[in-house]
């Protein structure tokens, strides 16, 4: 008999073995019960559970943890001041300081479609425009020479009519077809005076071209333009000053072409007379024409004009319509649209002032100066294709000769078209030449 303290317990080894066996039997019973429960489940549920375990296992195997370093935000690049102020509009003091005074100052001549992001610094644009003006065939001559030469020419010549032309290319480009425009002018009105405003024709090479006419007694001269004199006291003066300063965008259309559009208006406003393009062949005298402009197209239904053209203009000195033309040019100038400052300009202004008192002018039908539209000008150069076509060409030539003062040959579309024997142009050249020993193949 053993005596034990009440705080201790005696465990029989046999009891310990019995408890371990009972736990194992209980676990085995739970396992059998779980397996029996699985066996009783439908096959579809077993398949679903299997798929779930497979998917979980795949995610645990193939998932990869990538530790990325913290992203570094690069500092904002520094931009030129003009671009920064155009883009960053959240800085009112700088924007107000740089842009608002310029926009307010030139607001009256702001150009449609111009955006500030493409704006160039004024100093650079001024240098670019200066070089552009100096390289133009229409570059100005020293002040005073133009007015003295032109007034002296008119004073010393007995001019029944005053004609003006402009030329913006080199004298080498003044070809046989351009020369024939001069021939037709003096053939139809030998007592007229012609002034060609062009710095390239006002040269030794240009004078050689004109000498042949002068030797026959025709009154013709070439002179470089004086923009300041011609534009003085008109809206063109302000526009041209802004152009030179770089505050007017010259646009994509050739600047010489737009200056030619303005020059013809200023020449007639200053002196009065007739302006013609160098691709206009004159068929009969302009005596009797006064303050007229020609329609290029008309509405088929109403017979009213739909578009005018500025290739032929006949106006008195200081005519109010010319003043309106010049004003429209300066206030709505757009150097990116062909014709906006030319044919479309005169059409816009005439549509506005028609019927208003103080304007005295006449719109002549297309047959006067534009008997054939530019889209059909090729027909004027084609020779006969048969007997019927030959008769049609003869009748068309007679109709043009009877109804038209001049024919616009649309040189932009026709300069590469060959003049064929027996064509309408061939007949016109033969009937209105001054130097008639030329071969058609030369033209």
Automatic annotation (TrEMBL):
The UniProt record lists the keyword Transmembrane helix: yes
Transmembrane spans: 45-68
Domain Alpha 1,4-glycosyltransferase, chain residue ranges per copy: 315-438
Top-rank taxon: Eukaryota
Organism, as annotated: Punica granatum
Keywords, alphabetical: Membrane, Transmembrane, Transmembrane helix
Phylogenetic classification of the source organism: Eukaryota, Viridiplantae, Streptophyta, Embryophyta, Tracheophyta
Pfam families registered for this protein in UniProt: Gb3_synth, Gly_transf_sug
Protein's UniProt name: Alpha 1,4-glycosyltransferase domain-containing protein
């Amino acid at each position: 008999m053993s005596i034990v303290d009440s705080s201790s317990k005696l465990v029989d080894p046999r009891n310990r073995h019995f408890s371990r066996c009972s736990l194992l039997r209980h676990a085995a019973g739970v396992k059998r019960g779980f397996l029996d429960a699985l066996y009783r489940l439908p096959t579809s549920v077993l398949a679903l559970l299997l798929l779930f375990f497979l998917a979980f296992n795949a995610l645990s195997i193939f998932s990869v943890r990538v530790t990325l370093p913290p992203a570094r935000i690069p500092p904002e690049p520094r931009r030129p001041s003009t671009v920064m102020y155009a883009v960053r509009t959240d800085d009112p003091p700088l924007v107000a300081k740089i842009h608002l005074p310029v926009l307010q100052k030139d607001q009256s001549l702001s150009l449609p479609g111009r955006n500030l992001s493409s704006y160039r610094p004024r100093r650079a644009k001024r240098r670019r425009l200066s070089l552009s003006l100096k390289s133009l065939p229409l570059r100005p001559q020293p002040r005073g020479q133009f007015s003295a030469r032109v007034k002296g020419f008119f004073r010393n010549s007995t001019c029944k009519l005053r004609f003006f032309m402009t030329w913006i290319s080199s004298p080498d480009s003044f070809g046989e077809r351009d020369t024939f425009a001069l021939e037709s002018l003096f053939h139809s009105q030998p007592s007229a005076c012609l002034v060609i405003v062009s710095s390239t024709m006002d040269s030794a090479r240009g004078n050689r071209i004109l000498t042949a006419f002068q030797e026959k007694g025709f009154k013709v001269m070439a002179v470089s333009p004086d923009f300041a004199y011609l534009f003085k006291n008109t809206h063109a003066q302000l526009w041209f000053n802004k152009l030179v300063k770089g505050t007017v965008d010259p646009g994509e259309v050739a600047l010489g072409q737009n200056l030619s559009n303005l020059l013809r208006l200023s020449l007639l406003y200053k002196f009065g007379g007739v302006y013609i393009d160098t691709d206009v062949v004159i068929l009969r005298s302009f005596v009797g024409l006064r303050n007229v402009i020609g329609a290029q197209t008309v509405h088929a239904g109403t017979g009213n004009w739909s578009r005018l053209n500025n290739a032929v203009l006949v106006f008195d000195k200081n005519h109010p319509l010319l003043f309106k033309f010049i004003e429209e040019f300066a206030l709505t100038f757009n150097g990116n649209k062909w014709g906006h400052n030319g044919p479309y300009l005169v059409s816009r202004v005439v549509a506005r002032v028609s019927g208003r008192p103080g304007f005295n002018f006449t719109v002549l039908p297309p047959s006067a100066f534009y008997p054939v539209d530019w889209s059909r000008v090729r027909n004027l150069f084609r020779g006969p294709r048969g007997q019927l076509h030959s008769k049609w060409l003869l009748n068309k030539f007679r109709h043009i000769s009877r109804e038209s003062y001049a024919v616009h040959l649309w040189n932009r579309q026709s300069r590469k078209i060959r003049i064929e024997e027996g064509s309408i142009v061939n007949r016109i050249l033969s009937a209105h030449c001054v130097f008639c020993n030329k071969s058609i193949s030369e033209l």
